[in-house]
Amino acid sequence: MPEGDVWERLAEILSALAHPTRLKILALCSEKERSSRELREALGISKPLLLAHLRVLMRAGLIEYRAELDEQRFVVRKMYRAKSFRICISPQELRRLLDEHGTV
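Structure (tokenized):
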């Protein structure tokens, strides 16, 4: 990984986690797969706002989806789920990253 990329990646993940609505989306999608409609209803937010939050989470690699055919309505819907991840940030871990990947 080129120098600086690890820092950008870490910042992207932490930035995605820094919003209460995105944390709620992750919590809901870690219980079970959810459609955008289920997420909107649970969170009480608009579709455009939900999709913006989902894009941030997907770009950060924290959430994924699969397409599912709704045969009754003849539409394909996306079912979102949280990806498995673990974040451990300590001063020692940051120092290790600094030693391995250089300065910010």
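The chain has a mean pLDDT of 91. Residues 5-97 form a domain with the Arc Repressor Mutant, subunit A fold (CATH 1.10.10.10).
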